[in-house]
Specification:
Helix 4 crosses helix 5 and helix 5 crosses helix 7. The protein has 13 helices and eleven strands. By secondary structure, the protein is an alpha/beta fold. The two termini are about 15 Å apart.
Length: about 300
Amino acid sequence: MTDPLLHVDGLTLGVSLGSSVRPILRDVSFQIMPGETYGLVGESGSGKSVTSLAVMGLVKRPLRISDGKILFKGQNLLALPKREMRRLRGNRIAMIFQEPMTALNPLSTVGRQIAEMFVLHQNKSWGEAEKLAVDALASVQVPNPGERARNYPHQMSGGLRQRVMIAMALACNPDLLIADEPTTALDVTVQAEVLRLIKELCAERGTAVLFISHDLGVIASVCQRVGVMYAGCLVEENETQALFRNPRHDYTKGLLGALPRLGSRSRHGRQRLVDIDSIIADRSTLTDTRFIAPRAADGGQP
């Protein structure tokens, strides 16, 4: 059986408040296989993004990881020295952030920022790296890549800036790509183009993806398996189609029930959308009501 590329095991994280620690994540566990696209879904504040930051080694005070392991190719990332983690970050594990305007350096051209990846992680000269940066922009279908490489982030549209982020993240052909709400600020047409681009490039390169979103439609279109996060806990996990057909946790049912459906009024009359009372939950009870389906690769039924 193939070993998981990424195994988050019992990740527990909190924020230090004086002498106490307030939990943000509690006992979060999931696996991503090589080449798989795994989705994390949940409302804002459920713990999706902070989970991705923990994987990237970007958790800073007052946040503190108090328990658990993050195994990447069997190596515990939480035990790595900072220098070793920097070698992995951007090289073997890369990330697309949800707002490229804040992630990109406004004082540097986009070509220079992409070229830096090749200089830092592949020991290329700046001249060679800048040529590779143009090729990277062409690979994500940026028009006139040679000219665009000389642009600053503010000179580009939101869709083009997100393509720059994809080019930068995939520059070194990482084993794992983390996409944190990569289409949130884009209009529907550009969103579809960016999703298609991520799917095609990652499939072509065999890159596994941790895809984070609150948009269930996006998750359904790109992910093989889905984990549902609520109040810092992973409360349900299953293959995508099985989870959408047969949600088991009440929170998952609420999320799906809150989706507007075309034509439902004509078929069923006027109906109110399902509302979820509060994001405040007793985490001690949530861990007893999780629904984590075994993966088919483990011999279980999805």
